[in-house]
Design goal:
The structure is a single chain. The protein is of the alpha+beta class. It has four domains: 80 residues, conserved putative lor/sdh protein from methanococcus maripaludis s2 fold; 107 residues, Efflux pump adaptor protein, beta barrel domain (Elongation Factor Tu (Ef-tu), domain 3), CATH 2.40.30; 66 residues, RNA polymerase II/Efflux pump adaptor protein, barrel-sandwich hybrid domain (OB fold (Dihydrolipoamide Acetyltransferase, E2P)), CATH 2.40.50.100; 77 residues. Helices cover 25% and strands 37% of the residues. The protein has four helices and 21 strands. The strands form four sheets. The chain has a six-stranded antiparallel beta barrel. A hairpin with a 2-residue loop joins strand 18 and strand 19. It is elongated.
């Protein structure tokens, strides 16, 4: 009997333990589902703030001399002297003697002209004296009005005209002697020379190609869409000095990046038939400035930036943020939306927006994989 009780007692304990375990398992409350809290992405933005902006127009061109001429002789003759300063690449100052022609024939012509002038002077003075004598004699004899013939006026006029012609011939002979010296008309350099000692030259025959070095010019083609942003007349008139647009030229030379400043003076006469572009002409003084270590040189290829018109209430944002005339912006609550904007123009990496933004708009700068209107974002301002 005791064995039977023990057997049932042990069995009961096992059953009760199992029951308690099952009850505990099923009676345990179900775990609450975990709710993931949405954390808005942190993005960079910039304030859409209107500002005054001066348009920058870019172009390229090659530097040329402002003044370049072909050196010629005004008289025929044989080259008697050639200066070293007339060699290709040489420089010279204004008034330097570059070439001299054989002077002997011209000096002889000057002596002959001077002699003829002296003879004409003597004849004129004699006729003048005889005219005075005739006037007095007529007064003593008749006392009335004398005729021109009686007063030897025709002879006097002829002598006067001969003297004037002789003086002109003398001045011409003197000028020809001076013209045997071919002088530099300005400070400059020689591009090419075509003469040597002993060469016989005639008027108009090229002797050398020279150019001035005080000022250079650069012709800059402007796209048709950019013309309206330049404040210059298009009819060839010179831009008034106070209104001449400033331009900056940049080039690499002698291992350094060089920069020079100048002014735009006028527009070209015609539109290029190939490119359909109108060029403007700017000038730059040939001197070393704070931005450069060497003077600007003829033949340099330069990149130019021209200051154009000024505009008020312009929004300047990164160019890449404009897509099909729309920009993604955040309002003060961080809500994402699109804005249709009017683009005034693009400049390199900038877009100039004339209108379309609202007060408090912040342009989205961070690139996101997905953009949905109404999306909540955490903004981090970036001021410019």
């Amino acid at each position: 009997m005791k064995k039977l009780v023990r057997k049932y007692t042990a069995s009961s304990i096992i059953v009760i333990s199992f029951a308690i375990t099952v009850i505990m398992i099923f009676a345990k409350p179900a775990p609450k589902p975990v709710q993931n809290k949405f954390v808005p992405p942190v993005v960079e933005t910039m304030n859409a703030i209107p500002q005054s902006y001066k348009v920058q127009i870019n172009s390229q061109g090659t530097v040329v001399p402002r003044t370049e001429i072909t050196l010629t002789s005004e008289i025929p003759g044989k080259i008697d002297f050639v200066s070293r300063k007339i060699q290709s690449g040489s420089s010279f100052d204004k008034g330097d003697t570059l070439l001299v022609l054989d002077q002997r024939d011209f000096e002889l012509a000057l002596i002959a002209a001077q002699s003829s002038m002296y003879q004409a002077q003597v004849v004129y003075e004699r006729e003048l004296a005889e005219s005075e004598v005739a006037k007095k004699e007529w007064g003593n004899i008749n006392g009335g009005k004398a005729s021109n013939l009686a007063l030897r006026k025709p002879q006097l006029d002829q002598a006067k005209a001969a003297l004037a012609a002789a003086e002109a011939n003398y001045q011409r002979a003197l000028l020809n002697v001076e013209r045997t010296y071919i002088l530099a008309p300005f400070k400059g350099r020689v591009r090419n020379e075509y003469v040597d000692v002993g060469m016989v030259v005639s008027p108009g025959i090229p002797l050398a190609q020279i150019y001035a070095v005080d000022m250079v010019e650069v012709t800059l083609p402007i796209a048709e869409s950019d013309i309206k942003f330049l404040s210059i007349p298009l009819d060839g008139r010179m831009v008034p000095f106070s209104n001449q647009p400033r331009m900056t030229l940049a080039s690499s030379f002698a291992g350094f990046s060089q920069r020079w400043t100048g002014k735009v003076l006028r527009s070209a006469a015609e539109i290029d038939s190939r490119t359909r572009m109108l060029s403007v002409i700017g000038q730059v003084p040939v001197k070393t400035s704070k931005q450069s270590t060497v003077p600007i040189k003829v033949g340099m290829f330069v990149n130019a930036t021209i200051e154009g018109r000024s505009f008020n209430d312009i929004f300047v944002i990164p160019r890449e943020k404009v897509r099909d005339g729309e920009v993604w912006v955040l309002n003060n609550e961080g809500i994402l939306s699109k804005r249709e904007v009017s683009v005034l123009r693009y400049e390199k990496d900038k877009a100039l927006i004339s209108n379309g933004f609202e007060a408090g708009d912040k342009v989205l700068l961070t690139r996101l994989d997905v953009l949905v209107e109404g999306m909540k974002l955490e903004k981090k301002d970036k001021s410019k």
